[in-house]
Amino acid sequence: MKDDVYRYNHARWEALAKANALFTRPKLDLDKEAAREYLGLERLGVTGDLTGKHVLCLASGGGQQSAAFALLGAVVSVFDISPSQLERDQAVAGHYGVAIRVFQGDMRDLSCFESGSFDIIWHPYSLTFVPDSRVVFHEVSRILKVGGLYHLMCANPFFSGLTHSDWNGEGYTLKFPYEDEGVTSYPDQEWVYDQSESGDKIQQPIEYRQTLSRIMNGLIKEGFLLAYFSEIKSKDEELLPGSWSHFTDVAPPWMEFIWYYHPNVFKLK
């Protein structure tokens, strides 16, 4: 699926990897305890042994989550749009002496995997990079085993396109309509990569709003049951109005879910 959406995301993430952006830096200092803490497994209620579990890190290249799961004994695959990101996962595999399989492509098409291939699908922030989240959910449901876990971290749709720069002296001004597939774009935050050393200017992200009703109903329709939900806020104690930390405390920009795939629960017998 190499449409304009694919081409834009491919070019942007290749550029981000070249600029050594935060989400492209491999985790090279993990042990098993640090791996569990990094993934937040206890916080998410995922307490079981992962040894031998088949895990897909979806749109999750860069050698971060894959390293953590591999150290915990999982059988790890990584699917990502960026070849450079996947190279980081291969580097992590060599660093820790583990096996990690990598697959390049668009998360809207997971046909390279057989049905029921995975016990866990771990999907960090990337859902808003495609227009219709339901296409991704359908693909995820096909390749996840019955009873399998789907971790999803995505943009908080109520604040999509809003940043700390929208502080008006009293609050943060909403500017975009709350609608599915509304397009937003904004400059990368200064902590994403060193913009003074990035060379060619990296294109801003193009993101598509996914309303909470589309996300929730899209997953329910595919047979998922919700087990955990949180809104990610700042942990910074110094909350200066107009700062990134204050913004995330007032308008949490991310949401996190744990869903389990049970497609027959709501079907009449």
From TrEMBL:
- Record flagged with keyword Methyltransferase: yes
**Which Gene3D superfamilies does the record cross-reference, listed alphabetically?**
Vaccinia Virus protein VP39
Domain of life of the native organism:
Bacteria
**Which EC number(s) are documented for this chain?**
2.1.1.-
InterPro entries xrefs: Methyltransf_11, SAM-dependent_MTases_sf
In its UniProt record, a GO molecular function of this protein is:
methyltransferase activity
User: Coiled coil: which residue ranges?
Assistant: none
Domain Methyltransferase type, residue spans: 56-150
BP GO annotations: methylation
Keywords recorded for this protein, A-Z: Methyltransferase, Transferase
Q: Which of the seven top EC classes does this enzyme belong to?
A: transferase
This chain belongs to the protein called Class I SAM-dependent methyltransferase
Organism per entry = Paenibacillus solisilvae
Classification from the root reads: Bacteria, Bacillati, Bacillota, Bacilli, Bacillales
